[in-house]
Structure prediction request, 283 residues.
Amino acid sequence: MTHILSEDTLTESLEIGDDALAEITLILEMRRNFSMSIYKDKCMKRRIAIRMRSCRCLDAAAYCNLLRQNDQELDLLKKTLTIHVSQFFRNPSMFEKLQSEILPSLFQKASVAQEGLRFWSLGCAGGEEAYSLGIILQESFARELLQTPTEIRASDIDADILQAADRGEYNEDRLKDLPYSIRERYFVPNGPRVQLSADIRKMVTFHQQNIMDVETFESCQLALCRNTLIYFTRPDQEKILHGIAHILPPGGMLVLGKSETLVGDVRRLFTTICPLERIYCRL
Ligand SMILES: C[S@@+](CC[C@H](N)C(=O)[O-])C[C@H]1O[C@@H](n2cnc3c(N)ncnc32)[C@H](O)[C@@H]1O
Prediction:
């Protein structure tokens, strides 16, 4: 079953009118020589709203002011506008490590403690990462799943992306790292696209949540937070990492993206399991 949770009251006030969009377009063109004109307005407004929410700006005028004064935010907005979503088994070697070392150890500990497991894909985009985890569980941990109640959650700030993720329909390019056998087993053609099998789709629940509030999320034993931190300022990265540390019990695992790392004093709360794959264990 899927739960799309509504965001806090900020969501309703995030109207970006055409005038504000024109102003932001101009600021980006003048200051970063970046043109938004090739993108759809609706899509750009949605992306701008993501940054507004992250900065806790209540209206477009406040956000335009921030953009005029703050070069860093201008760079972050530019990055957010050009976000490339995701892929199944993105960085395959990380998923191999999960399959061969991390997941067996988490299942073993859960079995001894007779507890369930919760895995969380933070900044899940179209759900590719969470579903990849689901495929691994189905392929290699069927026996463990019978013993240990296991939940995969996936959250993002973008409601439209979450709706699409829930449908599990993808363009071919999202499947390029998939072994042929997996593709044959779990995907069926659907017009020009492919659709993920219902068996895997039902393993994941999607939630609209701001990662800035991660310390209020339910606890989990594995947090995947890949290629999302890079869109935040250093203080916000530290806040998010502290939040993740808060929801991971001792022995819980954190995976960051290939170009991300632990920053600030949160490093004291983790030990590094695999520096190459950016896998850390909560102390
Ligand atoms: C590049 S995608 C990462 C997808 C996936 N984790 C991966 O590594 O393939 C970054 C995602 O972060 C989401 N995001 C940006 N700001 C966010 C926020 N404040 N809270 C939650 N998600 C956010 C974006 O909507 C986008 O889907």
